[in-house]
């Protein structure tokens, strides 16, 4: 028997595509809505069994406030966070808010369906290794570095730091390649590695994360040799 569910994501095409795929597999998708600001109200009014709630930056403060409100007013609704490649801190924040699990944006539809079933049954719908890391963060948050910008900077090579600064300046791949004296394919590879290491899905998200954590200032100083 299909699950009564909702898909709510800022990216309308993603939400509608996922909703359509789940409908084809026999589930009853109540709605696929784009605006995150109204996510909680929509879910509370429809009261599905499971809600897939999209997020772009899992570790951003307040990003899971809609989950908290949904669980306060509709505790029977299982909320699955739908997001980019996660880190323990982001998953810990999701579980702390009351979410039942975390599903990556690039997960296959079969994986999404398994997560939905687990969430409806009251199980944690997340990979064991990620869950272990999340519990470690919840139990020992002091183990995380205080300076998030410095931690992220240490993940990048000097060349990737230069690329991040140029990405934040709005340069496209060809401009980055020309400015650094490298092939466009090499520049593209550097950009993809930066996105992967920062756990974001787009250049805009990378720039926003770098600015918010102070990484951009540190990267600019490092890139200039300061």
UniProtKB/TrEMBL annotation:
Domain HTH luxR-type span(s) in chain numbering: 149-214
Annotated SMART domains: HTH_LUXR (SM00421)
Keyword presence, Transcription: yes
Keywords: DNA-binding, Transcription, Transcription regulation
Response regulatory domain segment(s): 4-120
Pfam families: GerE (PF00196), Response_reg (PF00072)
Transmembrane segments: none
Keyword Transcription regulation: yes
Protein name: LuxR C-terminal-related transcriptional regulator
Species for this entry: Streptomyces olivaceus
């Amino acid at each position: 028997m299909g699950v009564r569910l909702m898909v709510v994501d800022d990216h309308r095409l993603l939400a509608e595509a996922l909703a359509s795929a789940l409908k084809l597999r026999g589930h009853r998708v109540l709605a696929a809505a784009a605006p995150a600001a109204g996510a909680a109200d929509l879910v509370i009014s429809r009261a599905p069994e499971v809600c897939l709630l999209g997020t772009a930056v899992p570790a951003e403060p307040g990003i899971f406030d809609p989950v908290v409100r949904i669980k306060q007013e509709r505790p029977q609704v299982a909320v699955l966070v739908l997001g980019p490649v996660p880190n323990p801190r982001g998953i810990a924040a999701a579980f702390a808010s009351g979410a039942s699990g975390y599903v990556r944006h690039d997960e296959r539809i079969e994986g999404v369906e398994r997560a939905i079933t687990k969430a409806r049954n009251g199980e944690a719908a997340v990979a064991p290794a990620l869950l272990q890391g999340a519990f470690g963060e919840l139990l020992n948050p002091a183990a995380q570095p205080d300076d998030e910008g410095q931690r992220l900077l240490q993940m990048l090579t000097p060349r990737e730091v230069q690329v991040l600064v140029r990405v934040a300046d709005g340069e496209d791949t060809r401009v980055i390649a020309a400015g650094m004296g490298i092939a466009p394919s090499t520049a593209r590879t550097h950009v993809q590695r930066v996105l992967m290491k920062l756990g974001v899905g787009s250049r805009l998200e990378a720039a926003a994360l770098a600015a918010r954590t102070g990484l951009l200032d540190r990267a600019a100083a490092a890139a200039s040799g300061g």
